[in-house]
Write a structure and sequence with these properties.
This protein has helices spanning 34-48, 73-82, 85-90, 104-108, 111-118, 152-166, 181-194, 202-212, 237-249, 269-280, 290-298, 313-319, 325-329, and strands at 13-17, 52-56, 94-96, 123-126, 148-150, 172-176, 197-200, 225-226, 252-256, 284-288, 307-309. It is of the alpha/beta class and 335 residues long. The chain has 2 domains: 4-152, 3-Layer(aba) Sandwich (Rossmann fold), CATH 3.40.50.1260; 159-319, Rossmann fold. The strands form 2 sheets. A 6-stranded parallel sheet has the order 8-7-6-9-10-11, sandwiched between helices. A 5-stranded parallel sheet has the order 3-2-1-4-5. Helix 1 crosses helix 2, helix 7 packs across helix 8 and helix 7 (181-194) runs parallel beside helix 12 (313-319). The chain is globular. The protein starts with 12 loop residues before the first strand and ends in a 6-residue tail after the last helix. It binds 3-phosphoglyceric acid. The site of 3-phosphoglyceric acid (3PG) has 9 residues, from loops. 3-phosphoglyceric acid (3PG) binds next to loops.
Length: 335
Amino acid sequence: MKRLQDFSFQDKRVLLRCDLNVPLDEKGNSTDDFRITEAVPTIAYLLSHGAKVILMSHLGDPGGKRVESLALGKVQEKLFAYLDYSQAKAKGKILLLENLRFHKEEEENGKKFAKALSKLGDIYINDAFSVSHRNHASVAGIAEFLPSAIGLLFEKELACLERFRSNPQRPFLAIVGGKKAENKLSFVKAISEIADSVLLGNLLSQEYASSLTNPFSSFKNPLKVVLPLDGGFDIGPKTLTLFTRHVQEAKSIFWTGPLGQVEKEEYAKGSLAIAKAIGKSKAFSVAGGGDLVGFLRSHHVEDKFSYLSTAGGAALAFLAGEKLPGLEALGYYGN
Ligand code: 3PG
């Protein structure tokens, strides 16, 4: 798998896949710019090495058609402000394509679409580790048509998560909350085989409980999965005591997905208390995913984590040992 240092970018057109899929409020404004600021170092590197940068991203899930509230205009304004827009624009060195998921071929990984995208550049750089679990045109398909490499953020994310897969300090604790519960369960199962315990949020624990009534359910280590004892839209006090004990004992911690409906302040207490407990611990601690990182940052409890990752679903899939299409396309697993 190649890296930025393996290329000369002078006068090259670089197609750069970023993950600018930021959390949005009802008015379509970004509520947290972490993914935008994390995209900046690679863009700055490419510009300073003489490249023209053609940026690509998705935003939300428009379902293959144009949805005005998911247009990338507002995100672009913010990104260019972080990049010192006036300079970059004056030299005509950077542009951002509109939300790729306005085209259904993006999620279908249409070959013609990937090829058409590839014509816009001389080199393809993927800096969107957090989307590498998606078999989409801009993540996987395009690498077939251009010399390809990973960007600085991708490299950083991968190195951090590899620590959990190769030789995690034990006890290794995983905490999995948030939405998209049905998709996460198979990952929880695989992670329960490498972690020492896995704490689940309420939504996921309901999903888990129903999976155990399924005769095909095959969790090898069900005792490692720790379910909430109380609560509903947030974890309750008994759960908090139990979960805090696990946090205090852990030597490495991976957390993705808030443990309640934290958009509402009254249901944010449990996640906040867990974040503070992790803040006090000396464990190697990683929080991942747009929603959780946004929540931690808005409550100013992020700085004691060892690492904040832009990746939620992709990180889970990676830790679960899945082959990620975005990594496979770039030769991570060998040819
Ligand atoms: C994420 O938010 O995890 C990534 O941007 C991928 O988004 P998706 O779950 O809509 O594919």
